[in-house]
Design goal:
The chain is of the alpha+beta class. It has one domain: DD-peptidase/beta-lactamase superfamily (Beta-lactamase). Helices cover 36% and strands 19% of the residues. The chain has eleven helices and eleven strands. The protein has a five-stranded antiparallel sheet with strand order 3-2-10-9-8, with helices on both faces. β8 and β9 form a beta hairpin. α5 runs antiparallel to α6 and α6 packs antiparallel against α7. The chain is globular and about 85 Å long. 38% of the residues are buried.
C-alpha cells in the first residue's frame, strides 16, 4: 500500500485506479487455485499471440548514454509515527491532521467531503491580498456597513493600510475588512479579486474548492474540504506577514489619519493557551458549524489541524493537537 505521504498527492483518478487495482488483486487471490492457473494461462496466451503488441515489437539495443546521469539528492524530513493510541472521539464532521514538511497524514476523517468553510475562507482572501497589494497601500472602505455577518464596523469612506485591513480580516475575522480588500482590487474590483482566489485554488490543486465570496458567507457553490484547507494552510505559513498577523492575540489599528481606532481581538481562543500553537483561522455559520484551522510547532515538529462542522472546535482541536504530539514520534527515513 502507498504510504499516506504519497497518497495525499495523488489526484482523484490516480487514487481510483490504485484502489481498483487492490480490489482486483484481492478478488483474484480469492479464486480457487485451478481458476487462478486457468486465468494466468489465458493471459499468457494473449500476450504471446502474434501481432503488434508493444512488448513484442520493442527492440532493445546496447547504446552509450547520450548524457551524464544526474546527481540527485532527496531532502527527507522526519515523519510522525503513531504509537498505536487511537485519536480522541470528536463531533467534527471532517478532520485532517497533516505534517507539512514530510506530507504525512496523521489523521483524516471525511477528508474529501465538500463542506462550508465559513470564515476559514479568509486564509485565501489574505493570501491573494498579500500577492496583490503592498502592505502600506491605502484602501478606502466603500461599503463596510453593508457587509453581511461579523464586522469590525469600519466606517464607509475611511482609509486604512492594507496591513491593518489584514489584521481586521484575520485576527478579528471582519467581513467588512475582507470586503474592502476585494472591492479595492484595481483591475476589476470584487469579481476579479474573487477570480484570483479561485485561480489560486486551481494553482494549488485544491480540486474540491470553489469560492463565491471573500468572507465565508454560506453559498451553494462556496465549498471546500479539510484536505484542501490543510494544503492551503501549508502555502500560507510560508508567508511571514501572514504568520505574524494570525499569531496576534490583540492589536489596536487605526485609519490613516489616526482619528479612528479599533481594538482587534483574536477569535481563536486557543491562541496563547496551547503550547506552540500559532493561529490560524476560525470560522462559524449556522450550516458550517464550528470550524478551526491551526498550526502548531513543538520541538521543531509541525502539524496543521483542520476541523470542520464541530460542536466544540476549540476543545476538540486541543485534544487532537495533544494526541498528535503525545502519541507520535518523529522518525527519519534513513
Amino acid at each position: 500500500m502507498f504510504p499516506s505521504e504519497i497518497l495525499v498527492h495523488l489526484d482523484h483518478w490516480q487514487k481510483k485506479f490504485y484502489f481498483n487495482f487492490l480490489i482486483l488483486k484481492k478478488s483474484f487471490l480469492k479464486l480457487p487455485l485451478g481458476k487462478r492457473l486457468e486465468f494466468s494461462f489465458i493471459v499468457f496466451i494473449f500476450l504471446s499471440y502474434p501481432g503488434q503488441n508493444y512488448w513484442q515489437t520493442l527492440i532493445l539495443r546496447n547504446q552509450t548514454p547520450q548524457v551524464k546521469a544526474a546527481s540527485i539528492s532527496i531532502d527527507s524530513h522526519p515523519y510522525p509515527i503513531n504509537d498505536g493510541t487511537p485519536p480522541p472521539l470528536t463531533t467534527a464532521q471532517a478532520i485532517f491532521i497533516f505534517e507539512p514538511d514530510s506530507g504525512t497524514i496523521l489523521l483524516e476523517k471525511n477528508s474529501n467531503i465538500k463542506l462550508h468553510p465559513a470564515s476559514t475562507t479568509k486564509i485565501m482572501t489574505a493570501l491573494v491580498a498579500l500577492e496583490t497589494y503592498n502592505l502600506d497601500d491605502i484602501l478606502t472602505v466603500r461599503s463596510g456597513e453593508q457587509a453581511i455577518g461579523h464586522s469590525v464596523k469600519l466606517a464607509t469612506n475611511e482609509q486604512f493600510t492594507v496591513k491593518n485591513l489584514l489584521y481586521a480580516t484575520l485576527v478579528s475575522s471582519g467581513n467588512d475588512a475582507a470586503l474592502t480588500l476585494a472591492e479595492s482590487y484595481p483591475d476589476g474590483g470584487y469579481l476579479n479579486f474573487l477570480k484570483l482566489m479561485n485561480q489560486k485554488a486551481q494553482d494549488l490543486h485544491l480540486l474540491d474548492t470553489s469560492f463565491s465570496n471573500v468572507s465565508g458567507i454560506e453559498s451553494l457553490n462556496h465549498k471546500t474540504t479539510v484536505h484542501d484547507l490543510a494544503i492551503l494552510t501549508k502555502e500560507a505559513v510560508k508567508n511571514t506577514t501572514f504568520m505574524e498577523i494570525v499569531g496576534t492575540p490583540s492589536i489596536t489599528i487605526s485609519n490613516v489619519t489616526g482619528e479612528s481606532k479599533y481594538l482587534i481581538e483574536s477569535t481563536n481562543l486557543l491562541l496563547g493557551q496551547v503550547d506552540g500553537l500559532i493561529g490560524i483561522k476560525t470560522g462559524w455559520t449556522e450550516n458550517a458549524g464550528e470550524c478551526l484551522v491551526t498550526y502548531t510547532i513543538r520541538n521543531n515538529q509541525k502539524i496543521i489541524t483542520v476541523v470542520l462542522n464541530s460542536t466544540d472546535r476549540f476543545g476538540e482541536s486541543q485534544q487532537l493537537i495533544d494526541w498528535s504530539f503525545t502519541h507520535h514520534t518523529w522518525q527519519n527515513l534513513n
